Amino acid sequence: QVQLVESGGGLVQPGGSLRLSCAASGSIYRVNDMGWYRQAPGKQRELVATITSGGSPNYADSVKGRFTISRDNAKKTVYLQMNSLRPEDTAVYYCNAEIRRAYWSDGNDYWGQGTQVTVSS
């Protein structure tokens, strides 16, 4: 069994900051790409940022320069530092990871349960 457990969401005023964390646990051989997605009410889930196992990041245009993704491979954890938050960043944020459970197996996608981020005055 593999789990992704997120933490760090909450309510913040416009211009504020939050840091999300997501830790993978369970029967894991290797964690490949990790990332964050978000889904606002009435909208489709969208990519926020991803990071390879080697540390190369990729960002949605809407968050470039404001959000920073990072990871700690030893802890199997990915982080999302969110600065200069805007009301339009309000959404449920989901952690995603491609995980191999054994050396002979392909990677499969896993998702966290989601954490609410609300940006409002």
Q: First CA to last CA: what distance? A: 40 Å
**Broad shape:** elongated
Mean pLDDT: 97
> Helix tally?
0
Rg (CA only): 14 Å
Helix content: under 10%
The total count of strands amounts to: 11
Poorly predicted tracts of residues? none
H/E element order:
EEEEEEEEEEE
Largest beta sheet, briefly?
7 strands, mixed
Hey, roughly how much beta strand do the residues contain? over 45%
Global structural class: mainly beta
Explain what this protein looks like in three dimensions.
The chain has 121 residues and is mainly beta. The protein has no helices and eleven strands. Strands 2, 4, 5, 6, 9, 10 and 11 form a seven-stranded mixed beta sheet that branches. The termini are far apart. The model has no long low-confidence stretch (mean pLDDT 97).
Q: In a few lines, what is going on in this structure?
A:
The protein is mainly β and 121 residues long.
Topology:
Layout (H helix, E strand, L loop, with lengths): L1 E6 L2 E3 L5 E9 L3 E10 L6 E6 L5 E3 L7 E6 L4 E6 L8 E10 L7 E4 L3 E5 L2
Keywords:
four-stranded antiparallel sheet, seven-stranded mixed sheet, 121 residues, mainly beta, 11 strands
